[in-house]
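Backbones bend. We report:
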Amino acid sequence: MQNYILAFATLLVSGLPSVFAADVTWEHDVRPLLKQHCFHCHGELGEIEGGLDLRLRKLLVKGGDSGTAIVPGDAEASLLLQRMTAGEMPPDEDKLLSPAEIETIRQWINNGAVILEEEPDEIGDGPFFTFAERNYWAFQPIERPAVPQADPERRARTPIDELILANSEGHPGFAPDADRAKLLRRASIDLTGLPPSPEMLERVLADTSPEWWDKVIEELLASPHYGERWARHWLDVAGYADSEGYTDDDRIRPHAWRYRDYVIRSFENDKPFDQFIQEQLAGDELANWTGGDLTEQQIEQLTATGFLRMAPDGTASGGINPTEARNQVVADTIQIVGSSLLGMTMHCAQCHDHRYDPIPQADYYALRAVFEPALDWKSWKSPPQRQISLYTAADREAAKAIEAQAAAVEKERSKKAEEFITLTLEEELLLIPEGEREAARTAYRTPKKERTAEQQALLKKHPTVASISTGSLYLYDRRRADRARKVDAERKQKEVRFVEETRTAALAEVPEEKRSAVESALATAPAKRTAEQNELLATFPATQVTLETLAEFNPEAAAELKRDEALAAELRANQTAERLKEYQQKAAEIRKQKPKEGFVRALQEPAGKVPQTFVFYRGDPEQPKDVVHPRDLTILGERGEIPDNLEALPTSGRRLAFARQLTDGTHPLLARVIANRIWLHHFGRGIVNTPGDFGRLGDRPTHPELLDWLAAEFQSSGWSVKHLHRVIMKSTAYRQSSVASEAMSADADNVMYSRFPLQRMEAETIRDTILAVTGKLNSKRFGAPIPVMEDSVGQIVLGEENLDGERKPVDQVDLNGEEFRRSIYVQVRRTRTFSMFEAFDAPAMTPNCEIRSTSTVAPQSLFFMNSAAIVEFSEFFAERLLREASAGLPQQVEHAWRLAYAASPSETEQAKAVAFVTAQQELMAKQQPDWDETRVTREALSVFCQALLSSNRFLYIE
């Protein structure tokens, strides 16, 4: 009888048809409901409220303080159902069971409370897993399934095709192969995120060899753009961002881009994925760096740990609860690890046992214990403290020598500053009463803390003396400039007065009998004077004094004017702040010669310090309970054990042990999760279409044998992602047309892959394809990201923020072509998503993106119709057509079609396009009579190009 029950349970777990499938059972139907709604008070974490433990069927019969909870065969007499129906259990209204769930329990009790699995006599505080949980598909070992023999007439090229056909009852057969042009565009965008060039299209269409498709795949996999394309997929699930998030200030991560570049290079070089995972989880332990110059390998390994630094981290910001912020970083990191590598919603077990999956709360903290030596919330390091400098010893020596030069300049500046302070002090002392000058000088020179009350009072009386400092010299420069202007104005008045006074004095000395004649001669214009008048004035030359001859007749007055002029010049020359600024600029120019210091945003565990990890009661770090040790999921059995400490390393080695365990070829989750993601990015849908959740609430695999075959193939190939690309893309399933046929009715949702699924390009790919088609793509690779900023109307655009005093954008900064780089290099700000990307469903990294959604909404069409960016790119596109297809409009239409769609237009399409552009030319010529023919042609082509870029044929991959 027991063997029959186990066989029956296996049928239910596997999902195969059964005569008992309609029956309600404890394992399948009731226990999951109680686990979801009731275990937190009746069995979980050792809590047994009312003495009632609901974790076993026999414990329900046994009951608690109020008696038996259920009476098999009599639901109405069962206290459990009475309390549920009355809304008294659970006591939390948010956790009340729905009428349908209560009805399930009622039916189960009335049917005799059916149980399929023999239960233990007792259950302790440790986790208890049912047969169904232990035998859940995702926790079973990965075994390569036998590939069935498919009917050759059904066009199975690879084991993938055979497994799809054999495991899809009623499969209508694959659609015909897509034509070469569509296949090439599909593969090119799939592997590189860019459309094929017209030259590649022409070459592929002309290739008559049987291996043409293999050659296409290899050429695309070898492209430098391949790594940029597939890195984007991994960066989504890793939660890559160039800012910290968490708080509103969303601080920039200036060095996060090195991790992005590491991921690009890893995909480009087809780094074995097991190594890729090990480096990201434990690169610092692999590097075992204890100081000194870093090797290239150590830099790469440390950079890889940026994976564990991608979670939002506001711990360097002010106004936060440090305990809460630190623990949130750890929680988000575990969520990223769980969804990206395990395909499990580990974060759901932070406060209590997982409601749906066999993940006890202790498992969550056991996984936390793997990471806590490096993410110790009690000995926390903020993001700036975790940076690792890339300076070498030679760099430091060079920087030290250059700094010494700059310091020497600054020493000269300090010396000169003291001279200027003394100069200013003496100037200001001259402006106060002479009797107070010496005392004021002494008071100023006395250290502030040592000044007497009298000295303090004296300086308070003369604030212009008290305020002299290096930082305030610019104010005294202004006072000097004002005084210089005043001296100049007074000197101008003196010049007139001194000349007049000298002339008057000279006339007074002329004998009285000649004075009238001299005055008459002076009043006569020089050109009209008589010889006698000139002779008379020559006798008394001082009467003709001018400013130029003042020194000859009134040397004292001339000397005073010279002194005033010199004083004004001196005041202007003593612009002390500007002269000190020259020293600063010189020092800054010297420092620019230093080797640029780069940093790695890494995770590094301190040696010799391993904190204890506790289970937090209800997830509250202020309420630690039991100590836990590192391990993988308990449901995986003994293989989940992780040592507390690896003796071979100065660190705990926990992350390295965990990484090696994940990648040793026996873990049931990792290879399935990654193979499923690779399939998802080729077909737009995963075999498990919840790639971050292989648990009970996630989707079941549509083709479980195919998933296991892919996972096994992935591992046996040496964890080669490119190998999996080849295997998938050579299948008929991939090469078939996306056009629906009569068979669609048999596979309306395309679950059986009876045609290739039509897919819209992602936000970044749309932009990259536009850049490529319009000829503006800047292929510069790697390095700091293209900045984003908010423009005057609140849109997030590419650009370097340049704000005025009111924080309004002014004077757009030239990005020197950086704005045309690929989208993977656009800065990812958690609070400032590039508006174009946001319109086309770019994900928010909170903390990561497990799968992208695709929407079809009006703003997307409006973007292509009205966006200034699209208008500009359409103009670029038109200019490219005029430049590369100069033979006339038919050739330009042909070239545009091949660039935008990677195909040639049909005769009808070309004729309609030519007619459209011609009509646009005629319309524009009438509306804009001032435009010349060249501009009319360009603008008409631009409208045509905008139409091509806005079309579904451009946006979708067939």
Remarks:
- Confidence is low (pLDDT under 50) at residues 1-22.
- Strands lie at 387-389, 599-601, 613-616, 624-628, 759-760, 788-790, 796-798, 956-957.
